[in-house]
Amino acid sequence: MAHPSAPHLLRLDQVTTSIGAGGASRQVLRGATLHVARGDICGVVGASGAGKSTLLRTINLLDVPDSGTVVVAGRDLAQLPQRDLRAARQDIGMVFQQPNLLANLDVYANVALPLRLHGTLNPPRLRRRVLDCLDLVGMGPHAGAWPARLSAGQQQRVAIARALASQPAILLCDAPTSALDAATARALFELLRAVNADLGVTMVVASHDLPALAGLCNRVAVLVDGTVAETFDPSDTTAPRTTPLGRELAFYGTEAGVLFHQGVHHA
Amino acid sequence: MPDPFLDLLPELGNALGQTLTMLAIGVTAAIVLGGPLGILLFLAGIGPAPTQRPLARLAGWTADTIRTFPFAVLLVALLPVTRMIAGTAIGPLAAAVPLSIAAVPWFARGVEQTLRDVPRGVVDAGRAMGASQLQVVLHVLLVEARPGLVVALAGLVVSVLSYAAVTGIVGGGGIGEFVLRYGYERFDADIMVFTVALLAALVQVIQLTGARWARRVDKR
């Protein structure tokens, strides 16, 4: 876990973001503040519509904030010219709810795509990098496969490899397991934990899977109505929680909660 | 005894050649001009404020207006333009002018629609990788739209073929004029049946080729 005084890799301060254009525009984030230290895995929980997706999409400016600051590795992203923003996005990998792989590219070409877009690696090094990323997620043997031939869990692994290809400092995971069955979801969370341990990639993981987040994260932010209502370390089960989701998460951080959760799944 | 049907075959071959010339010009114009126009129409439609892009709206409006014209009417209305561009209003090269003007918006809207069918999530993934807008078009949209683009292309060829036949009414040459002369003015049934069968076969070949090609590039 990061030292308390370590500089935050990611700082969102008083961020307000609206999505939709013109008359259909709707304010989703209303002054959200979130700081994530280097190396942390920060969970983001919240009811549907609380703004989890928008929060993550604001971190790489897929959704552009109306006000507030988004600072990643010391750079205020909203102030960057388009060209620099595109370079900064190489440092922020993203995994979505759907794998969002290109169906007409094979697994190898999907993972190579972010590297080819930026053209910084020569062909042998690019090849090495792609194969390393595929091995990391256990998809090395499937490099030549078409995405449609893979299971949903395998596709999501390829998506993780693709997001890691440019060796980002931060990995954003927007409900990465919500389209997967429970066992596949657990394996994917396990993979994220291993990636964090091996590469030290800082992660922000939005999910409804509270038990999994309680086991994975060392920080959790509870989003309520577009603001971060509380953040805490889920393994600290003694401090009082101010939100219902926070209390539920605290329960899954206890031994009783772990047993309860396992009982649910093995019953 | 001379067979009038056999005597006409060389002329039919000539007409077929003229039709294929028109087809080549019209389809090329549609791809070269209509393809990029379709991409621009698509990009204008997904921009943050589509209503603030008057040029794109004008292009879209023009494309739709041309498309709503029955081609025979467009053909006659464009005669002065044809004369200006081709120097004459007679023959397959002159006919290629209105043909191209009709084919460009046809294909542009086809390309735009095909790009719209690409899931937004894939575009988001491209943007999240740091792709520029041009890179999103080239490396994401056009890759994912490939099967749809092939289908649109096959539809374009069939449409331009039927447009090419219509140009016969103003002396554009090709199969259309051939049919008018022998099928309509002389009502030679044999010629008529043979020409219709020829066109039907041509359309079948185009559509089967398109479908097969689309299947081959579709990995979904």
Describe what this molecule looks like in 3D.
- The complex is a heterodimer of chains A (267) and B (220).
- Chain A is an alpha/beta fold and 267 residues long.
- Chain A has 9 helices and 10 strands.
- Chain A has helices spanning 52-59, 82-89, 107-118, 123-136, 152-164, 182-199, 210-216, 244-253, 255-266, and strands spanning 8-19, 26-37, 41-46, 65-72, 75-76, 92-95, 170-174, 202-206, 219-224, 227-232.
- A 6-stranded mixed β-sheet of chain A has the order 6-7-8-3-9-10, sandwiched between helices. A 4-stranded antiparallel β-sheet of chain A has the order 2-1-4-5, with helices on one face.
- In chain A, strand 1 (8-19) and strand 2 form a beta hairpin.
- Chain A is globular and about 55 Å long.
- Chain B has 220 residues and is mostly helical.
- Chain B has helices at residues 4-46, 54-68, 71-77, 79-86, 92-116, 120-128, 133-144, 146-166, 174-185, 189-217.
- Chain B is elongated, with a radius of gyration of 20 Å.
- Chains A and B meet through helix 2, strand 6, helix 3 and helix 5 of A and helix 6 and helix 7 of B.
Compact description:
The complex is a heterodimer of chains A (267) and B (220). Chain A has 267 residues and is an alpha/beta fold.
**Total of DSSP H or I helical runs spanning 4+ residues of chain A:** 9
Poorly predicted ranges of chain B (pLDDT <50, ≥5 residues)?
Answer: none
Share of residues in strands of chain B:
under 5%
Mean of pLDDT of chain B: 90
Question: Cα distance, first to last residue of chain A?
Answer: 34 Å
Kindly report the greatest chain-chain contact and the residue count on each side. Answer: A-B, 36 and 27 residues
Q: Give the helices and strands of chain B as they follow along the chain.
A: HHHHHHHHHH
Shape of chain A: globular
User: On the 0-100 scale, what is the average pLDDT of chain A?
Assistant: 92
Percent of sequence in beta strands of chain A: 15-25%
The first-to-last residue Cα distance of chain B is 60 Å
Q: Give helix % range of chain B.
A: over 70%
Helical/strand content category of chain A: alpha/beta
Helix content of chain A: 25-40%
Taking the sheet with the most strands of chain B, its summary is: none
- Compute the number of strand runs of chain A: 10
Q: What would the principal axes of the Cα set say about the shape of chain B?
A: elongated
Instruction: State the helix count of chain B.
Output: 10
Number of strands of chain B: 0
- The run of helices and strands of chain A is EEEHEEHEHHHEHEHEEHH
Helix-and-strand structural type of chain B: mainly alpha
